[in-house]
Structures are given as C-alpha cells and as structure tokens.
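Margin note: ligand = zinc ion.
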Amino acid sequence: MEALRPDLSDAEFVAAMPKVELHVHIEGTLEPATLFDLAEANGIALPYDSPDGVLEFQTSQKTAGTENLTNFLNCLDISRGVLRTADDYRRMTLDFLRRCRAEGVRHVEVMFDPQQAIRQGVPFGDCMEGITQGRAEGRRDHGVRSEWIMCFQRDHPADEAYALIAEADPFRTEIVGIGVDNFETPGFPAHFQPTYDRARERGYRLTAHCDVNQPDSRQHIRACIEDLGVERIDHGLNTVDDPALIDLVFERDIALTGCPTFYAGQESAPIERLDMIRALLDSGIRISLNTDDPAQFGSGWINNTLVAAMQSAPFSRAEIVRFMQHGIDSAWIDDDYRLELTAELDAFIHGG
Ligand SMILES: [Zn+2]
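Resulting structure:
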C-alpha cells in the first residue's frame, strides 16, 4: 500500500498533521533558557553552569534499572523549583502554548501540580491565576485551545489532594479534570478514593498515572478503573500483560496515553516499551502518543516524539494517524469540536 502523503518526508508529514496532545506536564515544558531566567529573577541557585549543562546533567542521570523514575523526578524537581510567582506560571503557560502553535498542535490537555506550587510558596490561587491568564492569552494570541488537569502527587498526603478539590471551586471552569502523578506509591489508588469521589461529585473528568513496570502495575491499573472510576490512564502500558485487563479496558472504554520518548529518556531498553505500545495499538485499545515532559531529558516536543516513534518502532503513517485519531476521540471536549478536529485530520490525510 502506498504511504499516505507521498509528497512529504516523515518529518514534514508529522509537522503538517493537525495534532492533539493529552499527556504533558506544564512543569516539564520549562526550557533551559527560561529556567535560567526564572532562577535568576527568583534568586535561586541551579546546579548547572549554563543552559547547555541542563541536558548534560540529565543525560548523566540516565541509568538502567529501577532508579530511572527517581532520577527523572529529582531532575524535574530542580526545574520546577524555580517557579515562585503567579507570573512565572503565566509565562510558562504562554510559552508552552506558543510552542504548541509552532508544532501544529490544535488542542492540548495539560497537567499541573498545585502541591508543588504550594510547597514553593506560591499560593494555590496565584498558581491558578497565572495558568488562567496564560491559557487565555495562548488562545487569543496563538489560537491553541487548552484544557487543564489538576494532578496530585502520590508521594504526598492524600488529605492535601482532598482539600484542594474544594479549594479549586472558584476555578471550576478552568479545570477540566483531575489526575495523580509523581512517584508511584504502593496501593496508591485506595488512598485517593475520597479525593476521586469528591471530584466526581463536582463533575471533573478523571484520569490517573500508572507508570510502566512499577511494583503492582497491573493491580494499580485495575483499581484505578474499578474503584476510582477513571476514564483514562496515563501510561498504563502494563495492561498488555494481562488479557483480563485488556478486556476490562475495552469493556469500560478506557483510553491510554503513551509517551514514547519519555520512556527512551529514562531507560536503556526503550524498545520493549515501544513493543508494548505496538501490541496495545494492534489490540484495538484507544492509545495515543504524547510527550509527557518535552523539555526534560531531551524528550523533545510532539513532532520530534512522533517522528522518533514512527522510525524506531516502526509505525506506518497510517498508524501514526490512528494514534492521533485516538487522541481526538479521548479528548475531554464537546462532540462538535471533536468532529471539527476529525475533519481536519481527514482533510490532511487526503492532501488538503
Ligand atoms: Zn506523566
């Protein structure tokens, strides 16, 4: 079969495709130059000599084995530690939405960690004000629509998460859903049951990270679906290890968000994870491809991520389009907008 759009190279094909992204952490979009600017403005010392030193240091932290996620999150902590004011959040948000426009992203669903902001002395309201303003400016100046997902950190008390659900009431229209991220702690879904129940009562959409190859990965995925009632799982690749779990994901129409270059950044055998993504796609599960933390560990922005996945898996152009359609189908948007995005993707495939 002839490849789609033979007039374009792989990189041109991906760049020109209208895109959505569903799994990206705003704190992971801080680029080294901005990191240095904010650190200087806020009087914070960084453990790097220059912006180039950031990636160099992060690359030195890539190791095989179980320490990968720990090293990754420690590096991310250094980066997100420079955010100290509402305007820092506004600037980071606007910078990211400008980048989305350059990458051809039409719609993005972005995660943010309010507990991180609070620990750094940024009140929740200031963090929300900064994001809200950046979001509106990004829509106005760059035409990128964004929805925001409030993520709680699993290695911090679940009581904090529970309290934040009520604290977020004044910003209800700015936040589409909730999730959990950071270190995957043992039995985490049970700790967050009251938080998810409270969020569901308020009409939030629900997702949760289930990282790859963690202790009890499969049990966590099952508990997130059956007990927390999530509609999406961020990563969740270990679904593929268990036919009963594959059935459950189908039955409940759960979407997965995979992040191929993020896995490559963390460990020495990323191919195994691409194989898991391939098997999930082939099974018919609604999995999309995303960046996670594009400015960390050299993960790269969405176009780079899609080209890397396409060439190393490998995935055909038709399969990359399928991943993108899965993203559109899993987005927390209304049906008119979903049809509009689908039509745009369709027109692109047919040379429009
Ligand atoms: Zn993530």
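The longest helix spans residues 124-142.
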